[in-house]
Amino acid sequence: MKHTDWFIGIDLGTGSCKSIVVDDEAKVLGFASAEYSGLQVQDRWQEQDPKELLKAAVDSARGAVTASGVRPEACAGLSIGGALHSVVALDGHGEPLTGVITWADGRAVEQTKALRGLPLAHQLYQETGCPVHGMYPLYKVMWLRDKRRDVFDRTWRYVSAKEYVFARLTGEYLVDYSLAAGSAFLHTRTLRWNPLCLEIAGIREEQLSIPCSPLMIHRGVNPEFAAEMGIREDVPVVAGSSDAANSNLGAGAVHPWQATCMVGTSGAFRVISTRPILDEKARSWCYAVDQNHWLVGGAINNGGVALSWFRDCLNQATSDLSAGQGLSFEDVIALAEKAPTGAGGVICLPFFAGERSPNYNLNARALFFGMTLEHGVNHLARALLEGIAFRFRTLKEVLIDVGVELREIRASGGFTKSALWLQVMTDALDRELMIPAWSETSALGAAMWALLSARGEDALEKAGHFIKKGDSRRPNPESAEVYNRIYPLFESLYRSLEKNFDDVAELQKTLER
Predict the structure, then answer these.
(1) What is the pLDDT along the chain (513 residues), one digit of tens a residue?
(2) Of 31, 84, 279, 357, whose CA is between 20 and 30 Å from 24?
């Protein structure tokens, strides 16, 4: 490896695609992002055009290469990270029969409801590390079988968004262990497709890509795409991992005692363990990363997507009154900053897109509780941030309960750009948060696989040596005490509404929206 070598990581996220160029010491040389165009608000999170994702990957890669000013011939490796739990059905020509169905799609409720509570659900969790929940491609495939039989019968292969992009760039269908594990089709110990899951879904093993190590290399990129991205055609393409595993790598949280608290479109609280860790109550998940590491933790559906919903509501309400561009995320955070800690007693259950960990209830619905005539939009904005933070507190408690020793928590994702949101999270968790110097940790983590491969490293812990620490946040004792008083009420509200969630979900099926 030469000192002039550089590497590119592509982070194929849910809301956008981000690419990063780093040198042989993981120093960031260039960064760019590209939005997925032509999407309505609902479609943006639930079903996406795979060709738009491919275009965004190429565009963001080209932008990062251009921004870095590097020489194309010095590109020593490329790796792609992809969001977990997506699936797209392809026909025999490799053309999409569906959009990319994302984690946020909630149509597989019936398929999971039929299994939950049965001994089979416990067996599936023990073998796959995936609780029975409609976000997993296993149940989305079952939904296609039950509701879109024409598509199901014509499907040649089921792939994730990353697999689709990887195949278009290289001509090869591969799936890294982490993305495979996040489909609920992979056996978490054997790292092979689970025959039980294949039987339940009614598909054949050859309809899924070959699971592989994140360090597996494919040499060469389609010449047309290579030219568009500004890289050489024979560049090594390293399989890489999921955006979740990459987020930990990019944050430097590579040891079992280091957790990552990530808020992006969704959110997650997780560690990289050297052994599979399963919960008797199936509140957490366990996804293989490679032959020696597993990603253990919990996730929430409602991170930045909840803030996006709130911003869009305000913008829709004022669109006829203002000729401006509407409120930004920063404007919403500024509204929240005007409200006191505890949002004046307003509590938000932020289940706008259902719930993942720990209860895995797609029928869960959002709620603002405790409002009076004295409360306003500032309190709602603050309560929303606090509600998301309380969800992370729940995830932290689950990890501690299953025996994870949390010595350090590192923040990652878009929320690290907001001083207020970081402090709210720190105070709600009542733990110090370490903040990596580079905030786009999933993109950096993607590039790390290419860098590790070029260096001949096979231990992902080596990635931690390259990550520089930034700032840190410590809990404010007064604010933490307020949140310690509110959190039990937050939990109690959820428990008291569990049956009502199902009732209102059924009602919403019959009413026009």
Answers:
(1) 666 899 999 999 888 999 999 999 999 999 999 998 754 444 544 788 999 999 999 999 999 999 999 999 999 999 999 999 999 999 999 999 999 999 888 899 889 988 988 999 999 999 999 999 999 999 999 999 999 999 999 999 999 999 999 999 999 999 999 999 999 999 999 999 999 999 999 999 999 999 999 999 999 999 999 999 999 999 999 999 999 999 999 999 999 999 999 998 889 999 999 999 999 999 999 999 999 999 999 999 899 999 999 999 999 988 755 556 789 999 999 999 999 999 999 999 999 989 999 998 889 999 999 999 999 999 999 999 999 999 999 999 999 999 999 999 999 988 999 999 999 999 999 999 999 999 899 999 999 999 999 999 888 999 999 999 899 999 999 999 999 999 999 999 999 999 999 999 999 999 987
(2) 84
The dihedrals phi and psi of 491, each to the nearest 5 degrees, come to -65, -40
Classify the C-alpha dihedral 23-452-235-230 as positive or negative.
Answer: negative
No. of helices (H) and no. of strands (E), the chain: 17, 21
List the beta bridge partners of residue 472.
434
Q: Is 232 left (phi over 0), alpha (psi -120 to 50) or beta?
A: beta
Q: Which amino acid is at 256?
A: P
Q: Does residue 122 sit in helix, strand or coil?
A: helix
Tokens standing for residue 423 = 């402090």
Contact 294, 23 (CB under 8 A): no
Residue 362 CA, chain-centre distance (Å), reads: 17
Strand, coil or helix: 110? helix
Helices marked H in 82-222: 109-113, 119-128, 137-147, 149-154, 161-170, 177-181, 195-201
Angle subtended by helix axes 377-401 and 329-337, to nearest 10 = 90
353 contacts 302 by C-beta, under 8 angstroms: yes
What residue type is assigned to position 423 of the chain? Q
**Separation in Å, CA 305 to CA 46, 186, 266, 353:** 11, 28, 7, 8
CA distance 32 to 60: 5
Tell whether the torsion through CA atoms of 451, 454, 459 and 464 is positive or negative.
negative
Place of tokens 């968790």: 429
CB 14 within 8 A of CB 104: yes
Q: In 193-350, where do the E strands start and end? A: 210-212, 217-219, 236-238, 258-263, 267-273, 285-290, 293-300, 347-349
Q: What whole-number distance in Å separates Cα of residue 25 and Cα of residue 6? A: 9
CA dist., res. 6 & res. 232, Å (int)? 12
Q: Distance of CA 409 to CAs 63, 388, 397, 435, 467, Å?
A: 32, 17, 13, 9, 15
> Which helix or strand (DSSP H or E) is residue 462 part of?
none
User: Which among 139, 143, 160 has a CA at the least distance from the CA of 209?
Assistant: 160
